[in-house]
Design brief:
Blueprint lengths: L7 E5 L4 H12 L3 E6 L2 H13 L4 E5 L6 H13 L5 E4 L11 E2 L6 H27 L5 E5 L6 H4 L9 E2 L1 H20 L6 E5 L22 H7 L10 E3 L2 E2 L3
Parallel strand pairs: 1-2, 1-4, 2-3, 4-6, 5-7, 6-8, 8-9
Antiparallel strand pairs: 9-10
């Protein structure tokens, strides 16, 4: 398979949940997908399951808590493909109950630090390391998995639709991630690379819980939209499916 003609996509945290559905969707579009997984055995199993469906998938060890794995990812992609067309920064954590009310007065600083390490700093580090490979793609696309809970506009509304969900560490890590999206998009405005934030929806996952209204199968729609934007598509935006969200 030619590295020059086949699009290559990396999805982090993709051995299950939203990440796996995103990897599946990209592979169904004809891309070779690389599943970034903290547990490589689980990543390999997920990739094998996609290959059994006739899709092109491989796995690589990536742990957002281990900065050494960034070089592993870069070196693997460079050696096997020589470029990266799509980067979906999906891996993320929450150490809080997302619907647990407002914990800002007593949130543990260790939880804030760790959440930012995974949800923001690891994303920045991985993206910066992979940018030379993304620049080699004909039309690079970077999708940062954010959340509507990162919207300061919605949180500050008197009749806020997300008022019950004020888990400080998670929410503000996604606010900061949105800031990274805006700044990186501006830095790359004169290139063929587009950078956007995606709110996948409130999805029935381990993080979203069983009462979430969206089924897992629909959770990849926003990322697929942003990963396949045309040359005149938006950059530096925040979306759920095709709708723009307030910062």
């Amino acid at each position: 398979m030619s590295a020059n003609t086949t699009k290559v996509a990396l999805v982090t945290g993709a051995n299950r949940g939203i990440g796996l559905e995103t990897a599946r969707g990209l592979a169904e579009l004809g891309m070779t997908v690389i599943i970034g997984a903290r547990d490589l055995a689980k990543g390999n199993a997920a990739a094998a399951a996609l290959r059994e469906q006739g899709l092109q998938a491989v796995a690589v060890h990536y742990d957002a808590d281990d900065s050494k794995t960034i070089a592993t990812v870069h070196d693997y992609i460079a050696a096997q493909f020589g470029k990266l067309d799509v980067l979906v920064n999906n891996a993320g954590i929450s150490e809080e109950q997302l619907m647990g009310g407002n914990n800002s007065a007593d949130v543990a600083l260790d939880a804030v630090r760790h959440t930012f390490e995974v949800n923001l700093f690891a994303v920045i580090a991985l993206t910066q390391r992979l940018l030379p490979l993304i620049r080699k793609a004909e039309a690079g696309r970077i999708v940062n998995l954010s959340s509507i809970l990162g919207s300061l506009t919605l949180h500050s509304m008197a009749d806020s639709p997300i008022a019950p969900a004020k888990s400080f560490a998670y929410n503000t890590s996604k606010t900061a991630l949105n800031g990274w999206t805006v700044h990186l998009a501006d830095a790359l405005r004169d290139t063929n690379i587009k950078v956007n934030s995606a709110h996948p929806g409130w999805v029935k996952t381990e993080l979203g819980g069983e009462h979430a209204p969206m089924e897992l199968v629909d959770s990849n729609k926003t990322s697929l939209f942003l990963a396949t934007l045309p040359a005149d598509g938006v950059t530096g935006g925040f979306f759920h499916e095709h709708a723009s969200l307030p910062w």
